[in-house]
Amino acid sequence: MTQNRIYTAALIIIGDEILSGRTQDKNIGQIALWLNIQGIRLKEVRVVADDQDAIVEAVNILRARHDYLFTTGGIGPTHDDITVDAIAAALGVEVVIHPEASAVLHQYYESRGGINPGRLRMARVPDGADLIPNKMSGAPGIRAGNIFIMAGVPHITAGMLDALTGTLEGGAPLLSRQIGCWVAESEVADLLGKIEKAHEGCQIGSYPFFREGKVGANFVVRSVDDRILDQCISALQAGLAEIGYPTVGGGI
Amino acid sequence: MTQNRIYTAALIIIGDEILSGRTQDKNIGQIALWLNIQGIRLKEVRVVADDQDAIVEAVNILRARHDYLFTTGGIGPTHDDITVDAIAAALGVEVVIHPEASAVLHQYYESRGGINPGRLRMARVPDGADLIPNKMSGAPGIRAGNIFIMAGVPHITAGMLDALTGTLEGGAPLLSRQIGCWVAESEVADLLGKIEKAHEGCQIGSYPFFREGKVGANFVVRSVDDRILDQCISALQAGLAEIGYPTVGGGI
């Protein structure tokens, strides 16, 4: 197998509301799935408070370590929305009003009570940044170098991801196939480890469940190589069948 | 106001299944809410891959920085469950079989097909660690110093949190009150900032929504001091009423 370059990304979720338990995060999942389609792997996520030092620290470590860094949250109009200031500080640049963002916001709020200082805050970007279109509401997302600054509200984030689809360079997407089996994963732990080792570049994940009064597990095999993925799945099915556990393709 | 010591915690979510988008995390929310009742604030969360280096790095930074460090995931019987090994490596101690965990597992599996090497893996702990009871299934959680190693499956984690309730030293719990209002948050951004500044130790969070064809926002005020919290809420209600926005106690 030719080893292609692997493109990686990190995500910073910015918001006291996640850390306090008030709000259930939905952005990790949707960004992870979207990235995979772009051929980019989400390698780490950090959830940080609405605190400039915490944001700056995470931004500077993760933007250097990965091809892409995404952030969600903290780009609204209120005093607790400090993401733009923190990222500008991390990059060592000024915060400026982006003329196009300002125009978008003036137009958006024309029929909604007019622009005001809070609303104009959402036109502020780190100097040199570009906009990410927001088709759901007025305030755009922001691209500053390899950093993608997105909304916290999941459906607005989704619209921004749509706008970015196909624009980021990625590698071979990580493929996955799942099979399921009525077995306690602890019965077959050894088998899983051996089959993973025998198939280079495959990872086997084991996800146990308890349903209908019985224990079972789904096994997900991931690889960038479709052929080896198939071989690994076949070996796993054969190995499980051999010890008396027939599998269900696609999972249970 | 007397400033009491603030107790903080971090959480590491260990698992490729979260980073791939396969599984929606539910542990951040339940651990955040539980910690708050213990008088401990969740200050940061990291989601890392099933990768020893990534786990060791996060463990060593976060255990030094906070009073408590929680981890979820990677303590099952299979080859991808490497949390115990990684944390032992981070602590520079050996992995040993904990006799009590071994006894629990032998008993648990007696009527479930018997113990085997995969199942006995779940009795492995960093040397010197204690157990956290697991009333939901056989394998216990682990306490190693200020690190609490919990299951990834949310209802098992919940049982382990129950077992820890009241055992960790905390400070004054962070209190919160919410009010709601049919207003675009961008209309009142200025007001929120001013009122927060005027009430020391209070944080005001603003959470906009769009329902019944109208925009609104809930405002959450957080403080450890009940008296200042009440004053801040009253000032916010008065300020919003003054510009024509009556509020609903408890939020909309």
Structure description:
The structure is a homodimer of 252-residue chains. In chain A, 37% of the residues lie in helices and 27% in strands. Chain A has 9 helices and 12 strands. In chain A, strands 2-1-3-8-7-6 form a 6-stranded mixed sheet, sandwiched between helices. In chain A, strand 7 and strand 8 (147-150) form a beta hairpin. In chain A, helix 8 (189-198) packs antiparallel against helix 9. The first copy, chain A, starts with 6 loop residues before the first strand and ends with a strand. Chains A and B meet through helix 1, helix 2, strand 2, helix 6 and helix 8 of A and helix 1, helix 2, strand 2, helix 6 and helix 8 of B.
Provide a compact summary of the structure:
Two copies of one chain form a homodimer. With 252 residues, chain A is of the alpha/beta class.
